[in-house]
């Protein structure tokens, strides 16, 4: 699997899947929800880690649902860099060429 998400968030693909499954089975009203989710994810994730990861998930979903993030897989996709919670900046060929020129110099 691609290591980019792990670099950005510190979570592997497998940890994310365990996290998603735990969210699906642990009741939102459970007073020990984050403790149980952390235990199900394992990998030494704390209650605080899973709560923060949940907030990131909600922000990502909000961005996708609001149309601020392009999540389509049609055609040639350009990588997008999240600038802040209110906008995303799409990387284009011109940006890539500029980066390569800066990297060489």
Automatic annotation (TrEMBL):
- Localization (cell): Nucleus
Q: Name one GO cellular component term.
A: nucleus
Tell me the GO molecular function terms. DNA-binding transcription factor activity
Question: Which keywords has UniProt assigned to this entry?
Answer: Nucleus, Transcription, Transcription regulation
Keyword Transcription found: yes
Q: Which SMART domains does this chain map to? A: SANT
> InterPro entries, from UniProt?
Homeodomain-like_sf (IPR009057), RADIALIS-like (IPR044636), SANT/Myb (IPR001005)
> Where this protein primarily resides, as one coarse class?
nucleus
Myb-like domain boundaries: 7-60
Q: What is this protein called?
A: Myb-like domain-containing protein
Q: Which organism is it from?
A: Salix udensis
């Amino acid at each position: 699997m691609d290591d980019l998400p792990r670099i950005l968030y510190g979570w592997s693909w497998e940890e994310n899947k365990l996290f998603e499954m735990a969210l699906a089975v642990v009741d939102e009203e459970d007073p020990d929800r984050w403790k149980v989710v952390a235990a199900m994810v394992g990998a030494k994730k704390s209650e605080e880690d899973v709560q923060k990861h949940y907030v990131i998930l909600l922000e990502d979903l909000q961005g996708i649902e609001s149309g601020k993030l392009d999540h389509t897989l049609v055609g040639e996709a350009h990588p997008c860099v999240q600038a802040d919670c209110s906008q995303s900046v799409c990387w284009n060929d011109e940006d890539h060429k500029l980066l390569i020129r800066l990297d060489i110099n």
